[in-house]
Amino acid sequence: MDIAELKASVIARVEAQRQQLRNLSLKIHSNPELGFKEVKAAAWLTQYLEKNGFSVERSICELETAFRGSYGKGKPAIALVAEYDALPKLGHACGHNLIAGGSVGAAVAAKAAIDRFGGSLQVIGTPAEELYGGKVIMVERGAFDSLDAAMMVHPGSHNAAVTPALACIALEVEFFGRAAHAAGHPEAGINALEAMLLSFAAINSLRQHIKDKARIHGIITDGGDAANIVPDHSAGNFLVRAEDDAYLDELKERALDCFVGGATATGARLEYRWGETRYAPMRNNLTLARLFRQNMQSLGRQMPLSDPDRSFGSTDMGNVSQVVPGIHPGVAIVSPGVGNHSPEFALAAASEAGIGGMLDAAKAMAMTIVDLVAIPETMTRVKREFGKKNG
Ligand SMILES: [Zn+2]
C-alpha cells in the first residue's frame, strides 16, 4: 500500500466512525464538566479507545481525569492530545468536546499507519485546559517525555495551521487599609479600594508603552463592604501576557510596580501572589504545520499557514510545544466575528459545522501521522527543526 492509498484508508476509517464520534462529542457537549471534574468525559473517551484496541491508563500524573491510551510500540511515538473541560456557566463554549472527538477519531483511524509501518500512538487526555492549565502540570510530571510529536486541533473562527499563543501568568493582589466612617472620620481611614483604583490607572498608563501583543487585564473581586465605610480591604485578579518568556519576565516587574505605586500613594499594604501555573508561548513546529495544512487542503478546506486576523490568547499546549515538536491548528466552525467563550460558540460546538470541523481535523491529523511514520526523513525534519533554538 503506498502513501496515497494509506491516506485514503485513514480518511475512510474516520468516515466509518462518523456516527460514533458525533455521538461522543455531543454527549460531552450536553454534559459539560469543569476542569478536573471531567469524570464522565474521561470515562466515555477511555471506553471508546479501549473498544477500539487501545490500552488505557487512567488517572495518570496523579490527576483523576487525565488518561493515556496507547497503541503500537516504539518509535516514532506520536501523541494526539484531547481536551474535554467546559467553562463555568457557558458550557462547551470553547468546543473542547470537538477537540476530544477529533483526537480519538484520528487515533483510531491512524492505527492503520502504525500496523503498516510500526511506531506508536498515544491519546493523552489532558484535563482542565481552561481554569488550571492541566497540561502545565502534566508536562512537569513527565507525561510528554519520550514523544516525537504531539498535535491537537482547536475549533474557532479561522482555519490556520499555526497558532499564536502568548506566555501568560496570573497575579492575585490584595490591599489592606484601615476602616473608618467615610463621612465622620475619613482622615482616620486608609482606603484599600483607592489603592486598587490607582493601580488600575497605572496599568492603563503602562499599557500604551508595552510591546505589541503583550496584554495586562484584570478584575476587582473585592471593593469594600458599604459606601459609608472606608474600605479596609480590596482584592483583584490579573493576567499578564507576552509574546515570549523573556518579555513576560520584564512585564511582570512593571505590572507589579503599578500595584506598589497604589500602595505607596494610599498607605495601604500590598500582598500579592503570582500564579503557580505559567503558560508558555506556543512554539509551532512549521514542518508539522505544513504537512497538516497540505492534508487539510487535500480535503477541500482552505487553510493558510497562519492567519493574521486570528485572535490569540494562551494555551497550555504551549508548554507541551516546548518539550515536544507540536502543532495546535485552528479549524473554523463559525464565521469570523463569533469568538470562543461566547454562547454562540457553545451552540456552534454542537452544530453540523462543528461536527464537520471535528471530522476534517481527525482526518488531517491521521493523514499527518501517515506522513510521519511512512517517511522517516519527515520525522527527522520535524525533530531537526525542533532542535534548532527558537525554531
Ligand atoms: Zn479552548
Structure commentary:
The chain is of the alpha/beta class. It has 2 domains: 3-164 and 282-387, Zn peptidases (Aminopeptidase, 3-Layer(aba) Sandwich), CATH 3.40.630.10; 167-279, 2-Layer Sandwich (Alpha-Beta Plaits), CATH 3.30.70.360. It contains 12 helices and 12 strands. A 6-stranded mixed sheet has the order 1-2-4-3-5-11, with helices on both faces. It has a 4-stranded antiparallel sheet with strand order 8-9-7-10. A two-stranded parallel sheet has the order 6-12. Helix 2 (18-30) runs antiparallel to helix 4, helix 6 (192-207) runs antiparallel to helix 7 and helix 8 (286-298) crosses helix 11. 51% of the residues are buried. The structure holds zinc ion.
Topology:
Blueprint: H1 3-16, H2 18-30, H3 39-51, E1 55-58, E2 67-73, E3 77-82, H4 96-117, E4 119-125, H5 134-140, E5 149-151, E6 154-156, E7 167-176, H6 192-207, E8 215-222, E9 233-242, H7 245-266, E10 269-279, H8 286-298, H9 317-323, E11 326-327, E12 330-332, H10 343-348, H11 352-374, H12 376-387
Parallel strand pairs: 3-4, 3-5, 5-11, 6-12
Antiparallel strand pairs: 1-2, 2-4, 7-9, 7-10, 8-9
Helix pairs in contact: 1-4, 1-11, 2-4, 4-11, 6-7, 8-11, 11-12
The structure holds zinc ion (ZN).
Zinc ion (ZN) is lined by residues 94, 96, 129, 154.
